[in-house]
Structure formats: structure tokens, C-alpha cells
Specification:
Elements: H1 2-26, H2 33-45, H3 47-57, H4 64-85, H5 95-108, E1 113-121, H6 124-136, E2 141-146, H7 156-167, E3 171-177, H8 178-182, H9 187-197, E4 200-204, E5 220-221, E6 224-228, E7 232-236, H10 248-253, E8 256-258, E9 261-265, H11 268-284, E10 297-300, E11 303-306, E12 321-328, H12 336-347, E13 352-355, H13 363-374, E14 379-384, H14 390-397, H15 400-406, E15 409-413, E16 417-419, E17 423-426, E18 430-434, H16 440-444, E19 446-454, H17 456-472, E20 474-476, H18 478-481, H19 486-498
Parallel strand pairs: 2-3, 3-4, 5-19, 8-16, 13-14, 14-15
Antiparallel strand pairs: 1-9, 1-12, 2-6, 6-7, 7-9, 10-11, 12-19, 13-17, 15-20, 17-18, 18-19
Helix pairs in contact: 2-3, 4-5, 4-11, 5-12, 6-7, 12-13, 14-19
């Protein structure tokens, strides 16, 4: 018996050493150092549990077949972008802006377009009402894509509008994230309502292993897009669900989400539509042709090809905005949304204003922000005073002291609101709005969509929103922050370590 116990002990020691050696070889490969170190720490401290978690969620890549589909789409978008850029006159833009647009085209595949107009929508219920009205005017198609899509008393008018559109003969295509929606109330009722009205719908990144559909569970499609007839589009932070997300703990705390949505008209809508079309193709294998006015795609064997004509119909120019849609996520290489954020901050000369509900930056982003302040560029950061996700909330707080010491002004948006809008501006004429948070999840794990805008009038709209935030928010001071209790600091630091597990 003693010999058996000894052999078991030796075997476990050998396995433990083997795990540690293999972890050192394979874990850091093609991974940012902070993420690699966090995973190694987890595996070394809790080797068996750490290995199981690494095998389950350690790879930020989509399954091979999905990557092949995404590569197809990316190649198509790059080809379109190259052709579109041949006829562009960008001489009126600063050189740094044109170089950012070039990078976005290279990594995201979509061109810079001129001639759009847009307005910002802040009120939660009114935004849903405006979207429903746009659907009621649809004559050809409606493309609906939301990370969370749920039928409840708040969203019922939007579902009613979709049903009326289908009854008029309008094709309605709907995408929503499987994992984000399946645990929410009214999930079955939502699917039943879509089936009942005759809408076409599909789950994004479904976790259905018995059907051969499975990937890392926390790779999610976080985009929020609505396109009606290719003439008007909506994108931003709003999920199609009640303002408290129908979650009991949110209702008990009285939480309300505060959002910001861009209503877009003009050539930029086609680029936004192209993102929906690519996601629909990824999930269904169907190429939307009969309902697409500008981005005409056709299946050619197993690949996509372009039918001819321009992706952007410049005859419908309606404004002065330069816009560029930037899709990002695990299907795109090199974390292109992070690169865009970094490029904008490094280029700022007058001011930077950032709004991010989940602000968990990597080292490069922290350097960019603190360097901007050191260069004499004021930086304002708007975050929520309270949080809805404990780990992210505490991880975010762990960066406050460094930011405050650098001179960043941190504004705390008041409870019971969760400031969920995601946007930032630099100087007087450049802005960005979309679904992407400034955290490592949005950089590497979530499929996101952002829109880069150059236009003085649009930035003025953004400044009005930011000024409203500033009026009702509380300015956090370093003196106040240093009075935080020790237990909060410990929680913040632990959460910061877990945020790097990608």
C-alpha cells in the first residue's frame, strides 16, 4: 500500500511539473504579456482547475470554419474598400486622420465615406419609438441586430412595427446573441413572436454543441445595428430590452441604463449594412441579394464576390459627415478597435473626452491617455458611480489612482443610472461612437462595431451630450479616492488580475 501511495504521489508530481512546463511553452504564445502572465499565474496556483479553464476559455479564436467564413468576408470588404478609395479626395483632411482611415480600411475592410448626416438619440424610450417609426416606413427590408433582443413592455412597440412590416411584404431579418439572450426573461416569448410574425431570424455565435455549433463560450457578438431600406441606420450602445434589463437585482436597486444611439442617413448606412450582411452570412450561410440596395453580394461557389457598381451610392449624399464603419472582434486580426482608439488619443492636440461604462484599459491605452495629459491635452473620463458587474466594476476602479495622479479628470455619472453609452471625441471635429467598451473584452473577445466621424457639427452634438454628463456628474478627486477602505483596494486589485485572463 505504501508503494502504491508513493507511485501515486510521484505520478501527480510528474503531471504537475509537465503541466507547468507545457504552460510556459504554449500559454504566452501570440498573447499579450499581461494575459499570458495572468493565465500562467492561474495555472501555477491552481494547476488542474487552471488548465480546465484555459482549455475552455483560453483561446480567443473563433472555430476554424467560422474563421474561414470571416476571412472570406474580410477579403471581400478589403476589395470593395480598395476600389472605393481610388476615387476619394482626402486632401482636405489632416494627414493623421487619413492615416487612421487607411489603417481602418486595412484591418476592418470598409472605406471612409463622405456625405452622411446624423443625429444623436439619448432618451431610452424615445429612441425605441424613433426606431419603430423608421420600421413603419420600410418598403423593402429591415435588418435588426442586437446583442440583447427581448420582447417586453418597453420593446413591444418595436416588435409591433416589425410585425406590421412583415404584413406589408417587407423582409425582416433579425440577429441576436445566443448566450446574452438565453438567460434573460421572455427568451422563448421573443422567439415565438418572431416566428409568429414571419420574420427571418438567427442566433449569433450559438452554443449548440449537439448541432456542431460551439466556440469559447464568452466570445460574443456585441453589435447593435438597425438598417431600414439601406436609407437610415442606427448604431450605438442600446440593447433592445427594458431599461432595467428585466433583471430582479437591477429592479431591486432601481438601476436604469443610459444609452446613446446615432441615427445615420446617407452613404455611411451602406457600410453599416455591410456589417449586418456579413454577420447574417456567417450565421446562416445566406447571401442577402434581393433586399440589399447598395452592398450587392452574391454567392460564387463557396465564396463571396461583388456584382459590380459601387458599395456606396454617392447620389444620396445628405450631409457633411465623413464616416467610417469599423467592425472588430475575434474575426479580425490585431485588435483593430484598440488601434483606432490609440491612434485617436495620440493624435489629439486640444482635448480628449471618453465615455466608457466598462473601462479596463491595457497598458498601451493607459500610456496613451496619461501621455496625452503630459502633452498638455486635457482628458475627461465619464464612468458610472455604481456598477452592475462586480468584477468589471472593481477592475475599472483599480485604474483610478494612476489616472488621477496623471491629471485625468474622472466624472462619476450618478446612481441609479448605469452610463452604458460608448463614445469619445478629440479636439473639435473628430468623434467615435459604437458598441465597443474600452476594456480588454471588447478589444479581443467581443464582435463590435464602431463609427469614426469627422465633422464639426456632429462633434458639437457630442459636446452637448458630454456637457450634460458633466453637469449632473460628480468630479472624483485624488484626495477622496485615497480615503477608500483597504477592503475595496484588495477587491479592485484581485479583479484587475482576473481581467487579463483572455
Amino acid at each position: 500500500m505504501f508503494n502504491n501511495a508513493l507511485w501515486w504521489a510521484i505520478t501527480l508530481i510528474v503531471i504537475d511539473i509537465t503541466i507547468r512546463v507545457l504552460a510556459i511553452i504554449f500559454v504566452p504564445r501570440n498573447r499579450r504579456p499581461t494575459s499570458g502572465m495572468a493565465w500562467l499565474l492561474a495555472i501555477f496556483l491552481i494547476p488542474y482547475v487552471g488548465v480546465v479553464f484555459f482549455l475552455l476559455i483560453g483561446s480567443p479564436k473563433l472555430p476554424r470554419k467560422r474563421r474561414e467564413v470571416q476571412d472570406e468576408i474580410n477579403a471581400f470588404m478589403r476589395a470593395v474598400s480598395i476600389e472605393e478609395r481610388r476615387n476619394q479626395d482626402l486632401s482636405g483632411n489632416p494627414a493623421w486622420f487619413n492615416s487612421l482611415a487607411e489603417m481602418n480600411s486595412k484591418y476592418g475592410g470598409l472605406p471612409l465615406t463622405h456625405g452622411s448626416s446624423g443625429r444623436l438619440l439619448e432618451d431610452y424610450d424615445d429612441t425605441i419609438a424613433v426606431m419603430a417609426e423608421a420600421v413603419d416606413r420600410a418598403t423593402d427590408y429591415v435588418h435588426v441586430q442586437f446583442y440583447i433582443f427581448s420582447l417586453d413592455t418597453t420593446t413591444a412597440p418595436f416588435f409591433d412595427a416589425l410585425e406590421r412590416a412583415v404584413a406589408r411584404g417587407v423582409r425582416v431579418n433579425v440577429l441576436f446573441d445566443h448566450w446574452a439572450c438565453r438567460g434573460k426573461p421572455f427568451y422563448k416569448e421573443t422567439k415565438a413572436r418572431l416566428d409568429g410574425m414571419g420574420a427571418q431570424w438567427a442566433l449569433m455565435l450559438p452554443l449548440l454543441p449537439l448541432e456542431g455549433k460551439f466556440q469559447r463560450p464568452d466570445l460574443r457578438n456585441h453589435r447593435k445595428i438597425l438598417v431600414v431600406d439601406g436609407r437610415v441606420g442606427y448604431m450605438g450602445s442600446l440593447n433592445m430590452i427594458s431599461r432595467d434589463y428585466n433583471v430582479k437585482k437591477n429592479i431591486a436597486r432601481g438601476l436604469k441604463w443610459q444609452e446613446l444611439v446615432l441615427e445615420l442617413r446617407g452613404p455611411g448606412v451602406a457600410a453599416l449594412d455591410a456589417v449586418f450582411i456579413s454577420d447574417w452570412y456567417s450565421e446562416t450561410g445566406e447571401v442577402l441579394t434581393e433586399s440589399v440596395r447598395r452592398a450587392e453580394l452574391v454567392a460564387a461557389g463557396d465564396s463571396l464576390s461583388r456584382l459590380g457598381g459601387s458599395l456606396i451610392d454617392h447620389r444620396e449624399d445628405q450631409g457633411t459627415m465623413l464616416t467610417q464603419v469599423v467592425p472588430s472582434g475575434p474575426g479580425f486580426e490585431r485588435e483593430n478597435n484598440l488601434r483606432l482608439f490609440l491612434g485617436m488619443i495620440h493624435s489629439a492636440q486640444q482635448r480628449v473626452v471618453i465615455t466608457s461604462p466598462y473601462f479596463v484599459p491595457d497598458e498601451a491605452l493607459m500610456y496613451a491617455i496619461t501621455s496625452a495629459v503630459a502633452r498638455g491635452v486635457p482628458v475627461d473620463l465619464f464612468v458610472s458611480e455604481i456598477g452592475d458587474q462586480a468584477l468589471v466594476y472593481h477592475a475599472q476602479r483599480s485604474y483610478y489612482e494612476e489616472l488621477l495622479r496623471a491629471g485625468v479628470r474622472i466624472y462619476m455619472y450618478p446612481a441609479p443610472y448605469i452610463l452604458h453609452s460608448k463614445h469619445f471625441t478629440i479636439d473639435d471635429d473628430v468623434a467615435l461612437i459604437g458598441s465597443s467598451n474600452m476594456d480588454m473584452r471588447s478589444f479581443g473577445l467581443n464582435m463590435e462595431v464602431s463609427m469614426l466621424v469627422r465633422d464639426v457639427g456632429f462633434v458639437h452634438q457630442m459636446r452637448e451630450v458630454e456637457d450634460h454628463y458633466r453637469d449632473i456628474s460628480r468630479l472624483l478627486t485624488l484626495e477622496e479616492w485615497l480615503r477608500q477602505p483597504l477592503r475595496s483596494t484588495v477587491l479592485d486589485n484581485i479583479a484587475r488580475l482576473t481581467s487579463a485572463l483572455q
